[in-house]
Amino acid sequence: MTHARRTRLSATLGTLAVLVAFTAPLANLNQTAAGLGAGPSGRTWILSSMSIGLGAFLLTAGRVSDDFGRRRTFVAGAFVLALGSVVAAATPDVAVFVLARIVQGVGGAAVVAAGLGMLATAFPDPLARARVTGLWGASVGAGIALGPVLSTWLGRWHSWRDVYAVLAAAGLALALTATGCPESRAAHRAPLDVPGVTLLALGTGALLAGLTEGRAGWEQPLVVFLLAAGVALLGAFVVTERRSDHPMIDLSLFRRPAFAAVTVAALANGGGIIALLSFVSGFAGIALGLPPTTAAWLMLAWSGPSVVAALAARRLPHHWTGRARMGIALVVIAVGQLLLWDVGTGSGPWRFVPGLLLAGVASGVLNAALGRESVASVPPDQAGLGSGANNTARYLGSAVGVTVVAVVAAPSGAVTPAALVDGWNRAALVTAAVSLVGALVVLLVGERRAVAVPAEIRSPQEADVA
């Protein structure tokens, strides 16, 4: 196997495994909570804990991979993912399980950020990179849908713990496979920005923990403290990065139209369709009386087209810019979400299929564009950072979006099928609006024109902008 093929295999399967881990509890939450003796708060943490690890460490993992080696970071992340999965499969305690899920998120952050950086380095040719980022985008959609299906099937066959045993084995296999990939890193290694890393991890973790705990009541002192601490720490992170000689992320990147556009698109993707889909399995089972297997298979109506569209995205006209692809894809996703509106208590599974199919096709195009644009919008030696920043935006958007959906969809009185259906319809409208607003911002971001300076006298900074 050539180095390029091994890199492609490792990065795409690694992303697939992380997304399987991320979505695994969606379909068998009742089984998992019963097995761990978890109450309402514990159920919320079971669903949200991996987001904390991902959101807090994706950007850090991207920067570390650029400076210390992308393959090394990927292999370490795969081992950490396997370790968290082993603990999740074995523990009888809900608190330990939640910690194990956070560890899975930390390992998954390294796998996703370093993996996409490895792809960008292994496939420098634009056409080859378009093909491989389409494959990477397909692995995102496949992983999101495969997680609930695999966990449901294994839970019915034996135990809800089996999916974590499978993930542990997958993490070890990924680590062993990736050891044969070539190493790559930035040409100029900067000192590790320890204050920036610490403030970002603590601030993001506190903010996500506050959003998670807040679903049980926003007036609780702990929730107020966590949210306030998260905002204060992230504010301190911005101040520190502005003053640092070697910041973890150069904040001037956000003045690049391409970087701003891909970041907004990732936020809208997480806060829109991904947030709504996280609610599908529970809603379909409780409100519509659909069995868990049917609810899990519904996800395939979205992910199947997503995988195919991501693979075919490279055949779209080359004059369609990344910004246009992301903006139009978000508009079509919003239309698909609107087709999921106006569900009734007597609706069957087929009522969801048209909207899921349409949103799935557009999601595939979007995932492929996000993979390509996240590394194309930063200097070549910061591919891991670009991947980390983009995926951080996606998971932060997802965490905030899931919280918004939980609040919007919550019944105002007794929990009845009719109240749940009303909540679903409100959530579909709100998340569609998120997708539309994201599309509008992406499409309105102005293109920065390069100054017409001869290439031979152009500075590295000018070349990056060009």
What report would you give on this structure?
The chain folds into two domains: 398 residues, Growth Hormone, Chain: A (Up-down Bundle); 54 residues. The chain is mostly helical and 466 residues long. The two termini are 36 Å apart. The C terminus is likely disordered. The protein contains 17 helices and no strands. The longest helix is centred in the N-terminal third of the chain and has 32 residues.
N-C termini distance = 36 Å
Overall average pLDDT: 86
**Shape-level CATH architecture of the largest domain:** Up-down Bundle
> What general outline do the C-alpha atoms trace?
globular
The total of beta strands comes to: 0
How many domains comprise the coordinates?
2
Number of helices: 17
- Could you tell me the CATH topology label of the largest domain: Growth Hormone, Chain: A
Radius of gyration from CA coordinates: 21 Å
Order of helices and strands: HHHHHHHHHHHHHHHHH
CATH superfamily of the largest domain: MFS general substrate transporter like domains
Category by helix and strand content: mainly alpha
Q: Report the CATH C-level class of the largest domain.
A: Mainly Alpha
* Main pleated-sheet profile: none
Low-confidence stretches: 448-466
Helix amount, in percent?
over 70%
Q: Report the β-strand fraction as a percent range.
A: under 5%
